[in-house]
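Structure request: Cthe-2314-like HEPN domain-containing protein, Clostridium aciditolerans.
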Amino acid sequence: MDRFEFDTQIINYIKNETRNIGYFPENRLYREEQIQLSENVFKIRNSVEWIIRINKILKYINYSILKSLKFAIELESPMDENEIKDMYTYYLEDSVYRLMVLWDMYKQLVNEFYDVRFSRDENYSIFKLKNELKNKHIWEEDKINELGDYLNSDKHQFVRNYLRNTFTHSVDPTSMNIFHDFSEDGLPFPNIENIIPRHPYENLVRVVDDLKELVKKIGVENKHIEKLLVDKIMIVKAIAILNCSEEQELEIINVEDLVLNKDHIGIFVQKKKCTECEYAIDYEGKKACKPIMIKYSRIYEDEVFTLDINRTISK
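Returned structure:
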């Protein structure tokens, strides 16, 4: 909390950072792409299911954080015990719970996309997942260490072990709790460990900080999902650009097949004027024109990609 000088800075940080967390592109497949039935198609489809679930959880977390903040602002003192405090605590606990659910969704996404082979119904921890990623050499060591360092950091452990565990298994971490024990000589003494609760803003800042880090990690994996889609899964409509600047439509094709075969595409000439073109070449006994470029876009979408062509004809 040392980074803030005034309460208004803390409030604005919680509000702005929470509202700035958007939803992830879901990279859903069109019907024509789904029926390819390849291993990569199933990997994309299954991973996207987790992204869809993640977006729902994000919506709930954002709502809970902002509602908890609303009641935290209304509190006159962290020591208050009233309905406002109860509502602050209710939404804080809800945001912590859903944040832990989001970490589980991230765990499932990584397991699915990288084929780590945990069952979806298996109750395994993200720490066990990290070890499997390392043992099976699925992730690079730097990436594994980065995940491990963060999971063991005070920033994450405050949310996972202090807030989550006290809400679930122990006292209310937002309230003053006074317990009494007996000393070895039989005299009673107060246990003051939980007598002074942390400031409500501190708890919310910690939740937001952890959420931001997790969202960043999910975003990295979603970029990998998108790259797999763009490189291997998309069904595309393509146009060959000829040397004379004319365009010739090609058949709809899988993007990976298009990229692999781009240098072997020869456009058979049908127009009489083209047979006399200085760029025409003999290809399989016919006059043909070798494209200089191929433009393509995903079916039903407008974004255009380009492929340069090797001008040497393979016969």
